[in-house]
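Entry 12.
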Amino acid sequence: MNWQFPEKSKIQSLKVEEKEKKSFIANFAFFFFPSLIVASGLVLGIWQPLEQLAYRGLFRLRGTMPWDERVVLIDIDDASLKELGRFPWPRKQYTQLLNQLSAAEPSVVVLDVLMPESSPEDGQMAAAMEKVGQVVLAQGWDLKKNPLRPTPELSKSAIAIGHIANHKDSDGLTRQVVPQLEGVPLLSIAASQVYSLVKEPVKLPPMNQPLLVNWPGEVLQAPHYSFVSVLQGKVPASAFKGKIVMVGVTAAALDPLNTPFEGHPPASGIHLHATVLNNLLQENFLKNPDPKWLLGFLLLGGPMLGFTLNRYRARHQLIAVVSLCSGWVIVSVVLLRVSYLMPVVSPVGLFCLTAASLSIQERLRMKAQLQHIEQQQQQRQLYDSLTGLPNRTLFMERLEVALERTYQFENYLFAVLFVDLDRFKVINDSLGHTVGDKLLVAIAHRLCTLMRPRDTVARLGGDEFTILLEEIQQLGDATRVAESIHEALASPFYLDGHEVFAAASIGIALSRRAGEPETRRVGQDGKTIPFLTPSTLPSPNTQKGQEPVLNPEWDLLRDADIALSQAKIMGKGRYAVFHTTLHARAIALLQLETDLRLAIGALSKEGFEFSVLSSPLQDENSKLKTPNLKLLPNSEFRVYYQPIISLSTGKITAFEALVRWQHPKRGLVSPLEFIPVAEETGLMAQLDWWVLREACCQMRAWQERFVQNSEPSTSNYEQLTIGVNLSAMQFAQSDMVQQIDRIVRETGLETRSLKLEITETCLLEDADAVTAMLEQLRALGVKVGIDDFGTGYSSLGRLHCLPIDTLKIDRSFISGMGDEENRWEIVQTIMTLAHNLGMDVVAEGIETAEQMLQLKRLQCEYGQGYFFSKPVDAAAAEALLAAQPQW
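Predicted 3D structure (tokens):
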């Protein structure tokens, strides 16, 4: 007996079974893939926008259903607004309506109108509400989540209060409502509760889960009457007898609402509450299938459908899928008529994806996948992933080609535009990065629509775009494009329900034609540098220790960037054209910043960053001894002093300390040049501390000579005060008060001899924190004044709460006192305000004797200005003190 053959047949059979098993597993995995896609999309909400469209379509296919006749609407419509005036109305209109309705004996009256503010007419309206008997009022919330409840008098007369919060989906349609919010029932639920008590029972839904709204049909089909028609008695009382009367706004644009039947709303919020009330009375809220059942259907439906359709040819597969999709839609419409809402997109998507997967061969799919990967890699290398625009690499390649054309063609001219969005960070921080990304995509689209096919729009990164304008005739062509960009961005963008405005600053750099003389620049060494060479910035290809590689395309992009910086200096939404002076100015500004860092850094190297001198010594009687008042070493910075004069005595009573920069090569640098740079680079606080220490040390020395150790016959100075400005950066330091206390103690200056001056801007940064710091300074005995008062935006309502000793009137008001009547009145008003608050006044910018006399007549205590003395160095100020001048 030959038993080997049966054994061999058995082995072959096992192999076939194993192969079929593997094929079954592979096919199951392949058919399961569409199910996984659809189920994942359902869980992640990817299908939601399409389901929203299907939702509208199902309702329209289902058609309208009758509105419940127990609900009647009174519309605050356009006709009522035209007759009774603009909305909101006074209480008397609602009082008249309630009096009109009381005779009709409605079951419930619902007022879908917020009344959070008290009115003298509340009593009359409350009486009318009690006359009707069953009135339900509305409650809402403002943008800060504060409740907007009816006034106490109206609430007392109302039988119930319901909320009118409306949650709209991303497409603007309300699909569900919250039955109860912060303990307040929905307005329609509150109305149904009252109706259950006075008329007939209404089955209430669970209050712990959202209710799916079942829209009956077009809102105009609901029983409704105009507000003004009811007031005028044109509607018979029988229309409201025993019914639920809902009063609300239906006028266009006041309370718009989308429904599945109206895309551009004639509907309003009152129609939503009427619909919910309609659902309550008819017990026909929508019901959804169990999510677990739906997810199981989607996960198993793909493999089952795949194995079933895999037996048929492609033509039959197509017929089967079309039949399944159509049948599912028909069943969904039928179920919707019995208040059952079925998903449409995910099942139909499953059918279609499964059919598509059947028509794809494994090798073709793998080949397509490899091609897709290759395309994606190329796309990432040359194109921006967000906007689809060329990226920096591709832009620089095209710019290099354009530069080559300038050498090949004599009259070839092109321009580079560097576009930077203004305030884009504000949009990102306020509306979120999703809206910010959509804004970038929308702006990229608008830029592309402005360009010719030969031009290139690229995104360098962030909110920066570059544009290559090829084959232009003159500079005016580029500036016209810049103006077109500004005009295009002036129109708002509508993104995720937000109206977003954008603006951009633009820098323009122009190429030169072949044979045109090269424009020359001046380098830091005084030598000229040709146009389109890396004059200050090395090429990206330059290695350390190598000579710079010529990359004119990078130079042109840099020039456009420099022009962009100039445009930003000019203001928002501007453009600037590059010229050689801009390049020189950029280098000069960079050099100024470098010199400033070195000068301020030298102060720190000398050990004077935050410490002054040794602490004051005390003798055995605990009397303050004079410290070693050695002035700080010579530095590039100088403190100048401008005297402040008592207008009553004409004598010097104080000085204001002002910083000056004596650069070894630049000479005396104006504060208008270096102060903004110091503030922008964060160096201002360090310089301010140095000035404060220097001024305190100098004033202590003057007090030693002219106040404390002088005989009465040789000195008439009872007290000298030094005024020093505090910057916003110092206020940002949590230990500011401790620093000031330490400097005062280390220099030995009495705190009553120091007055710190702040600007109105400091008061606005963090009012509570600044006030607390000022209180601490007052506790130390330091005086505080507001500098340049009248030029900022400080709140006069807070001024009396601030620990301020002095107001300094800005020089702009003093200079026009003799010529402009309103300037005189402003000065007089400021002094009256200061005196009433117990403050003294210093007038800045006095330049004539007439101004001084006018201020004396207004009882101004102190004056400061060129009429008395310009700011002078310490030696000249000391000479002034010794001369004891009197004005």
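Annotation: The domain at 605-611+635-883 is CATH 3.20.20.450 (TIM Barrel). Residues 1-12, 517-550, 607-632 have pLDDT under 50 and may be disordered.
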